[in-house]
Automatic annotation (TrEMBL):
SMART domains: AAA. Belongs to the Mg-chelatase subunits D/I family. ComM subfamily. This is Magnesium chelatase. Keywords: ATP-binding, Nucleotide-binding. GO terms for molecular function: ATP binding; DNA binding. Residues 210-393 form the AAA+ ATPase domain. The keyword Hydrolase does not apply.
Length: 507
């Protein structure tokens, strides 16, 4: 007896069809083998499938069972083959035909129930592209798959329910999308809680409006971390296309919660400085997305930037420039998007008090130079906005405390950011990009014409600051964002003058 059960596997964000071929021989010693380059997790599914079938009150044939995962030359890993393997075995025992144009996908528990399984969204996309009408997935993953319209998503609780449906005894209705579910908590801080630091707040607004990277330099306790954690509160919600991009990444990494669905708020990732290169960039034998991909269309906050290993920081170069990365391994090569706003913060010296108005720095010049060199010039050159965050005097804090209710809250800043983003969305509607920071040089020439006076100011600043060609064009992008925040059609002298204030003369 032989049956073929359609399923799929995920290789990065690409989904590849896999046929689960199950053959039950009438002769030979009882054996249960899985072939087709399975991983250890798939090899262990033999015991899960056998026990789940028996505990579901169904018959498990003690015969020679061979399962082939085709194509056989493609390495496979994961637990989502449990369901198609079980379906292939039980359907032959019960002698029932499987529904046409249907995919089966899910991990089994020992009692026969189906567990939440990563990658359901990518499976639904694949099913729609390949013309499959039905997909059978765990109930907890059904809402995630139901985002994709045009495919019947059947939420299955356990094996017994599935075969009751296939035998026509009961009917499982296709899942209906239950709406967008906000993932994550509200921003930790509101901008009105940050007392003082008006220039840094303005830099945050520009970074949010144009998708620009930001570097903050300041002594301990000056408010760098608080500012960064307030940034998500001024970012607009993700658009439809952006939401799908982000949700696909979280789906393949298994970070969509049970009953979860489309991500509508910008991700905020803040890894510790002890993170490995694979953890930040992505990797593994079957490459998984790293923090930079999980921060796609959101914020990657690297606190204590100078404490990150040099090799980890240098690995950011290409993703920061291209907005994507390719991870190559001997078994596979995958592509992940990585278009994020980098917010990095650092102390000015090892002790942290180089520019402190009251505390004395105890570092030598050699120690300061060595500390600064931990962050290379090429990395700093890729960061658009550079801002110093000075220490706020205690007396000023006391004065500001009483004015807290009169300070501008995040929702007011967010309104300006949304308007600026809408201008950019309309401007780049035919270009396939969303923000000013994503512009290439051809886009700058097309969308950022400069008057002779603006060009003169930029050229003088370029000579004074020793700007690289990259930094030169970044100044134009920032000025364009400042103009968008004001609703101006052209980049004027005040816009460029403000943009140049955010460029460090030391870098």
């Amino acid at each position: 007896m032989f049956v073929k059960v359609p399923s799929a596997t995920n290789l990065g964000l690409e989904t590849i069809g896999v046929d689960v071929e199950v053959n039950i021989a009438s002769r030979g010693l009882p054996v249960f083998e899985i072939v087709g380059l399975p991983s250890k997790a798939i090899d262990e599914s033999r015991e899960r499938v056998r026990t789940a079938i028996i505990n579901s009150g169904l018959e498990f044939p003690f015969r020679r069972i061979i399962v082939n995962l085709a194509p056989a030359d493609l390495p496979k890993e994961g637990s989502f083959y449990d369901l198609p393997i079980a379906v292939g075995i039980v359907s032959q025992v019960l002698k029932i035909g499987l529904p046409k144009n249907s995919l089966f996908f899910g991990e089994l528990s020992l009692d026969g129930t189906l567990r939440h399984t990563r990658g359901a969204l990518l499976l639904a996309l694949f099913a729609k592209e390949q013309g499959f009408e039905n997909i059978f997935v765990p109930k907890q993953s059904a809402n995630e798959a139901a985002i994709i319209k045009g495919v019947n998503v059947y939420p299955i609780e356990n094996l017994y329910q599935l075969f009751s449906h296939l035998l026509g005894k009961t009917q499982v209705k296709p899942a209906e999308y239950q709406g967008q579910v906000r993932r994550g908590e509200e921003p930790e801080f509101d901008m009105k809680e940050v007392l003082g630091q008006e220039q840094a707040k303005r830099a945050m607004e520009i970074a949010a409006a144009g998708g620009h990277n930001l570097f903050m330099l300041g002594s301990p306790g000056s408010g760098k971390t608080m500012l960064a954690r307030a940034l998500p509160g001024i970012l607009p919600a993700l658009g439809e296309e952006e939401s799908l991009e982000v949700t696909k990444i979280y789906s393949v990494s298994g970070q969509i919660p049970p009953e979860g669905s489309l991500m509508t708020i910008c991700p905020f990732r803040s890894p510790h400085h002890t993170i490995s290169q694979a953890g930040l960039i992505g990797g593994g034998s079957n490459p998984r997305p790293g923090e930079i991909s999980l921060a796609h269309r959101g914020v990657l906050f690297l606190d204590e930037f100078s404490e990150f290993p040099r090799s980890v920081m240098e690995a950011l170069r290409q993703p920061m420039e291209d907005g994507k990365l390719t991870i190559s391994r001997s078994k596979a090569q995958v592509n992940y998007p990585a278009r994020f706003i980098l917010v990095a913060s650092s102390n000015p010296c090892p002790c942290g008090y180089l520019y402190h108005p009251k505390k004395k720095c105890i570092c030598t010049e050699r120690e300061i130079r060595k500390y600064r060199k931990r962050v290379s010039g090429p990395i700093l050159d890729r960061i658009d906005l550079h801002v110093e965050v000075p220490v706020v005097d205690i007396r000023e804090l006391s004065q500001h405390q009483g004015l807290r209710d009169f300070l501008e809250p995040s929702n007011k800043i967010r309104e300006r950011v949304i308007k600026a983003r809408e201008i950019q969305r309309k401007r780049f509607s035919a270009e396939g990009i969303f923000t000013n920071a994503e512009m290439k040089n051809t886009h700058i020439k097309k969308y950022c014409p400069l008057s002779q006076e603006v060009k003169r100011i930029l050229s003088q600043a370029g000579l004074s600051f020793n700007l690289s060609a990259r930094a030169y064009f970044k100044m134009i992008k920032i000025a364009r964002t400042i103009a968008d925040l004001e609703g101006a059609e052209e980049v004027a002298v005040p816009h460029m003058a403000e943009a140049l204030q955010y460029r460090s003369k030391e870098n």
